[in-house]
Amino acid sequence: MASLISSPLFNFLLISFSFLSFLLIRSHAFEGRRAIESHYHTVEISSLLPASVCSPSTKGHSKRPSTLKVFHRHGPCSKHSQDNATPSLDEILTHDQSRVDSIQHKINLNAEMDKVKDKKAALPVQSGRALGSGNYIVTLGLGTPKKSLSLIFDTGSDLTWTQCQPCARVCYKQQDPIFNPIASTTYSNVSCSSTRCSQLSTTTGNDPSCSTKTCVYGIQYGDQSFSIGFFSQDTLTISSSDLVPKFYFGCGQNNQGLFGNTAGLLGLGRDSLSFVSQTAQRYGKYFSYCLPSSSSSTGHLTFGKSGVSSNVKFTPFAASRGTSFYFIDIVGISVGMTQLSIRPSVFKTPGTIIDSGTVITRLPPAAYKALSTEFKKQMKKYPSVPAYSILDTCYDLSKYTTISIPKISFTFGGNVKVDLAPSGILIVINSSRVCLAFAANSDASDVGILGNVQQTTLEVVYDVAGGKLGFAPGGC
Ligand SMILES: *[C@@H]1O[C@H](CO)[C@@H](O)[C@H](O)[C@H]1NC(C)=O
Ligand SMILES: *[C@@H]1O[C@H](CO)[C@@H](O)[C@H](O)[C@H]1NC(C)=O
After folding, report:
1. Of 188, 194, 214, 215, which is best to mutate to test ligand 1, by the most ligand atoms within 8 angstroms of its C-beta?
2. Closest residue (by CA) to atom 1 of ligand 2?
3. What is the pLDDT of residues 416-470, one digit of tens each?
4. How far does residue 51's CA lie from ligand 2's centre (Å)?
């Protein structure tokens, strides 16, 4: 035996074996690390901060025929941010809560009305439609010759309107010259007797009125924002080769609220007067967008099917509960390698909408608790700091340049799993306060809302006619 141990052959075998097991252990460790890495994002803190100069997305959407560039309202890519009107993040989050309150109020009201429908109840006075303070804008043309207008685009409302001269009552300050109907050869007033005029009741929640035979609309949003004016038609220009004649919109004579320096709103809801419904023949109720990862980049809003990437995965829309919102089903959330344990009824009972104008995703309280608890567990190595506004899971990352954060993915109905981008997970107040970009609803019965922070960089595809919503990574 002793002779064997000291034999060169044995030594050779021993060394080979050690080397082999070293290789094996190494490759196991490597596999393990790769598995872990695939559940984490390595993020440079600086990449989460908006730059002071605009660097437009280089993804080529210009090949698509009906595409508009999307800007964040308050960033260097928007000419609307040049005066000092940019609100603080705290103000943005306060406005965001008002929007959420008014969306939830509207959906709850609809549920109440469904219960009393048989009694032919009169329309209750609505305390406000969803607030028009969405954060993304597009520029399109109106009238002949066309005038450029920058509008907030909003999947959470329906009526498209812009401020109009002569601003009989009040126009707030806007960047573009205010649209002048008299200067457009294709402009016309809509008469009180038209069916389109009567559709305003459901679109705006207010019955239209009449001014010397011209239909008058009025729409109010949460937070006392409103627009009142003549209901009108004119040519909308999406691109030089893509004109929408006789488009119905509000020509606002009395406008006030949180619309920043924009000229008004582009309504992308499901209602019969929304842009989506009015252009159904042309674009087949199909549109897609990508919201940029920061306010120093750009995205796109595209109408029609052509050019949509083939790796889009679709989840069916859920029933819209008598509203014009886009409902979807969340069936699960995972953080890193952990699938959160949340009862299906937590999402199913209140339902979820996707909204381009809500900033921070709102989850049912039980779902939010599971998410933040697991996130905290996996972020233990970073020092935590107190809550900021509606955000209660925050970290001081001032001593780091690069961090590792767990991936967060949502599974939607039809088993569609979507990984959020880092910009959809954390929101940076400053380097000493970086927060998980989610918040809880106060009541388990309030609708969940998939907000725009979580949608950033994703290609989000609304196939309204096909009854489904698609997601693909890397949209802009
Ligand atoms: C539209 O109707 C209003 C109210 O009747 C009127 O003041 C305005 O001149 C009309 N505009 C056009 C272009 O006909
Ligand atoms: C970061 O933001 C928090 C919350 O607004 C503030 O209290 C703190 O002073 C800020 N820190 C720095 C370094 O600016």
Report:
1. 214
2. 430
3. 999 999 999 999 988 899 999 999 999 999 999 999 999 999 999 999 999 999 9
4. 19
**Ligand 1 proximal residues by C-beta, below 6 Å:** 181, 187, 189, 211-212, 214, 230
Taking the centre of ligand 2 as the mean of its atom positions, its distance from the CA of residue 441, in whole angstroms, is 26
The encoded tokens of residue 346 equal 């937590």
- For domain 313-472, the CATH architecture is Beta Barrel (2.40)
Q: What is the Å distance from ligand 1's center to 189 Cα? A: 6
Which ligand 2 atom minimizes the distance to the CA of 430?
Answer: 1
Query: 313-472: same fold as 66-303?
Result: yes
Q: What are the boundaries of each domain within the chain?
A: 66-303, 313-472
Ligand 1 atom closest to residue 232's alpha carbon, by position in its atom list? 1
CATH topology of domain 66-303: Cathepsin D, subunit A; domain 1 (2.40.70)
Q: Assign 164 to helix, strand or coil.
A: strand
- One DSSP character per residue, 116-131 reads HGGGTPPPPPPS-BS-
Question: Is residue 74 very low, low, confident or very high in pLDDT (cuts 50, 70, 90)?
Answer: confident
Using one digit for the tens of pLDDT, what is the confidence trace for 190-212?
A: 999 999 999 999 999 999 999 99
Q: Is 70 exceeded by the pLDDT of residue 3?
A: no
Q: Which of 99-108, 236-245, 308-317, 358-367 has the lowest mean pLDDT?
A: 99-108
The backbone torsions φ and ψ at residue 442, rounded to the nearest 5 degrees and listed phi first, read -80, -20
